[in-house]
User: What shape does this take?
Amino acid sequence: MTSKTAMRILTAIVALIFLISWIMKSGSGMSDSAFTNVRDGFLVTFAVFLTLSIFSFLYRDNPFYKFAESLYVGISAGYWMCYGFWSTVVGNFVPRASRSLSEFFHVPYQEHADHILIYIPIIFGLILLTRLLPKIGWLSRWSLAFIIGATAGLNLTRYLRSDFISQVSNSFIPLFVDWKGVGDFVNHISLAADGQFIAILSNWVIFVGVMCGLVYFFFSKEHKGAFGVASRVGIWILMVTFGASFGYTVMGRISLLVGRITFLFGDWLNIL
Amino acid sequence: MGLIISAVVIGGGLLWILYLSIKGQDVDRRIVYLFVGATVALAIIFRLEFGEVATPIVKSVFDKIENLPAGSKIVLSYDFDPAMAPEVNPMANAFIRHILEKKHRLFFMSLWATGQSLLSVSLNDVLKPEFPDAKYGVDYCNLGYKAGNEGVLNVVITNFRKMFPSDANGNSLDSLPMFKDVESLKDMDLLISVGGGKPGVKEWVLFAGDPGKIATAGGSAAVSTPLLYPYWPRQLIGLLGGTKGAAEYEAELIKTHPRFKDKGMPALRMMGPQTMAHVVIIAFIVIGNVAYFRSRRKGKQS
Amino acid sequence: MKRQIPMLILSAVGTLLVVSVFIPSARHWQEDASLYFDIIAVFAFFLGGGNLIRVHTEKVNRKSTGWIYSVVTLLGFGIMLVTGLFKIGNPNGIAGDLSQTGSYFQLLFQYVMSPLNSTMYALLAFYVASASYRAFRAKNTEATILLVAAFVILLGRTALGVLLTNWIPAQLSVLQIPNLAIWIMNAPNLAGQRAIMIGISLGVISMSLRLLLGIERSYLGGDN
Assistant: This one.
């Protein structure tokens, strides 16, 4: 049997299963309207078809997967364009630009907004679209410059405050927690998760870990001697960090799979 | 019974893979895929569920919402797409239930366009059926999505109406009673971002919570959760990480507000399949390493 | 001129946003600049859509390999665009929320875009499992530390961790796997992530300064 024949047979089987599923889902619909039941039955079946098409890639690349992938690209682009138009062009530009347009789109007209300056971003936006035209595509750099400048300006202060100064400040933590003397510490020493010893150990690990992690990333000095030891400790701390990230990544990906299988068993096969 | 059947099937499969690996035979990747799929499917079919207890990082968010005075203003931002939804949607729904149960005012918004569509599902499936007395514009409102990522936060931190002249339904903010005493994010009592990408919890901390000194909490997809720990507890009051975080919050919600017990908590249900899948992943790592060290020893001997 | 004007625009906008943090009365300018940034950013979506039409139309015209899939892409794009721009089936017509329940746009999102998006990422679960079997080897000390940390997290974040180590007494409770997982996240993970965060922030700050001062010009592309 040639692969084309096999593909044709497979497509016929898929089409048959699709039809059976559509009929059964339409029949079990909860709405009073027959049209709604038929429509929803089709949509659920189509969603299952798309899900299984993507999963079929695990076996090997095939036309069903390619179809689903191409559809995804087109649908996503259309989705974001629609939202961009309604949320920002209609939501932010129209209320400031024109009373009649505002009434047409049923958005409240902003009496006190600047009705002239609001055209500046529209002009820059249209300039951005010149990227599609090779001859005048260089003009789009003006709009890109605006976007990059705004991002750079925002990030400079925010990252400096929250990701640098605050993080350094948050690392200045007490290395001796609830300290009442060596005797008291020794008397109550334990590996209880909420105990004093673990609290002190945690703060030491955080303080030393941040220092050594930063030492590791300092490449202007050779990692030798005490500097090398600190760098080594830094790598170990970073390895624990990456291990934790890996663990959470596995958890995240498995959750997505659980979600999809729950959809197949619950919404489609109704066995949950 | 389901646990026993799952354990037998999965255990047997793992032993077979271990045997093949020790013999030096390569296990086809499609067998591995099938095995993972079967593990998760069995756990879902047999409805394996376990109890959860909230950890401090999750409990701090719960306690904050629980202890705010009634009528407090809380922003809930849907910053995720369908790919993250299985993990974070349960968190968002749990927040909706908790916030409205405590009679706080809930302001919805999104920094992701897909968040709006997912919010629409939550409003239809959770808010309206379970809180039929909640009035739009008084108890909750939907501001909608705006493009611009952190640029949106940079405006609303000082002026809501500049970025949102109207809500998602075209109503002027001044026409909504709950906006009477709200000028900007600084008038809010709590900001909650549910998401896992960019823009997400990090952007809310950097561009809203920290500069505005507003209490901020997060619900994050598991992939992004470790990256947010440096913000806790000073810049983030708490963080729900992945399905586990969502399950812990749901467990705490059921414990404190038992009326939600029969509402079908999806995160708690997901922890069973999650547990089985984790066991399989760990087993694969161990089996892979056993085979590796055996072949290395054989190579040294020869 | 082709290079000077964009550099001037970048520096002016960026400097305004930086200065406005320190001068409260410049808040109004900061809000306007951010609002303009948002409106311009939306045109990037239109640019993406336009590019998609251009690329795939070219493929169809030339009948390149796989051109039939480009037809699918364009059809999907067109259908989504029409249902969204005209809010077809929206119970409140043009005035209502774009994603209102019952609108065709929302139905397409729920039953086409959502399953596609979710399943694409769900594939990663299988790849993680395959990588666990084939690639994660404890070849040296660092790799072993990574794997041990990963094991503790994987077990500690599930009920199995509780079952395995519940018997450990309270005096040694940090050795219970769930508590150990929490400790790993709160201490060494926090330390490592903080070190990385500080490093990245220094990079972002220096790159932003380079852009504002006109030292970094890669966004201008080649000479045109």
